[in-house]
TrEMBL record:
Its main location: membrane. It is a multi-pass membrane protein. It comes from Thermosulfuriphilus ammonigenes. Keywords: Cell inner membrane, Cell membrane, Ion transport, Membrane, Potassium, Potassium transport, Transmembrane, Transmembrane helix, Transport. Pfam families: TrkH. This is TrkH family potassium uptake protein. GO terms for cellular component: plasma membrane.
Amino acid sequence: MKPGAVSYVLGWFFIFFSGALLLPGAIAIGFREYSSLWVFGTSAAISSLTGALLVRYLGEKEDLGHRDGFAIVVFGWLGASLLGALPYVFSGTMGFIDAFFESVSGFTTTGSTVLSSIEPLPKSLLFWRSLTQWLGGMGIIILSLAILPVLGVGGMQLYQAEMPGPTKDRLAPRIQDTARILWGVYIFFTLLETLLLVGGGLSVYEALCHSFTTMATGGFSTRTASVAAFNSAYVDYVITFFMFVAGINFTLHYRFLTGRLNAFWRSEEFRFYLWVGLGATVICTVFTIIYGIYDDPLTAVRFGAFQVWSIMTTTGFGTADFDLWPPVCKLLLLSLMFLGGCAGSTGGGIKQIRLVVFLKFMRVQLQRLIHPRAVGTIKIDNHRVDHEVLQGVLGFLALYMTVFVVASLIVTAQGVDLITGTSAVIATLNNIGPGLAKVGPTQHFAHLPALSKVVLSFCMLAGRLELYTMAVLLSPAYWQGMRFSRRQRQES
């Protein structure tokens, strides 16, 4: 790793990030929350100063290597989470640990919160809360690649380290152009949802905040009761549709919007994602009717579909307390938490494509037991899956289970009950938001011990960055051979 090159890029990233911290100032002026101008102005100044110091005293403009990409992404996300916590602290809303947890939950689009009541907070702070999810949804490093030319050097390393999924689709020869295309599609759907929600009676402010967190599959709301507060079937269906959209690979959206109308159906991952979601919706609908939760089939479909797509896409919005649903529905939703969205979407979780590959791998193994001499191949969309990709999928699943078990042990060792502790880890590791029991859809995370919040914050970051990116930096081998620039060697 080259510390000078990493510091140079991180410095410019934090300077760019200070601009995002100033955006809620417009909301503060609009709602006459003038005291919030100091909160966001000071936070932006600290971010800009941090970046300037890194560029001036530690930075060195060099070509980035593969290792540098991992460091920039991890420290970029960690730095953004720390700086993003400052408005919560400066406004007096919460202490540092809670503020860091809330900030990480925002940028990783998890949606878990320590807030028991949302409405009393300043509108500008709630806007910042939603904005963090929107920025984190498509990726703050990817956004920087699209805007800052200085990050164009070594951009592929950053793109591969941040974008979710076992494979990375490039839509253009230059990685900056790919980043701009992805963000363009992302903005298009955000604006479209905002217009539809305004048409459903929401204010422009609430429509924009909820569009931010829907397209990011984040789940932060401006209401304590989440989307249920609007009590509108129209709003529920609009948000359900856009949660479904956000869980799809954005490269498929781009291909569809540019005239390739069969792009979705040709994707095996999309078909699997669609049928799993529809099947789960049918099961939840039927059993909530059988158990008398809902009398009207249309109401059961409305709430069943919303909860299924909210959980499977790892958005985390709520219109019903599914913790009160029949056990089969709760178990089904808990299982969906692991799946997540498609690769290349804003959804978290294991990703649908990994499950498709794993199921095909199991089928090949069974065939070999029956026909030992048979040569089985795994194909996705009529393309053979490389051995390296298969190894990556199996390694990811092993690493995933290791992190899940270790984190669950640490959390439950602090006196947190089994259902609450394990579901909290599932909810944060998969970037979902709500869990079960004391962290259920109508509860919050404020009551958890401080160490648990730190562990769960790590789970959120690890889940958003696909585990490997975080795990690489924890490996001693990564730090061997660290190379300082000529200027840094002279200064030392």
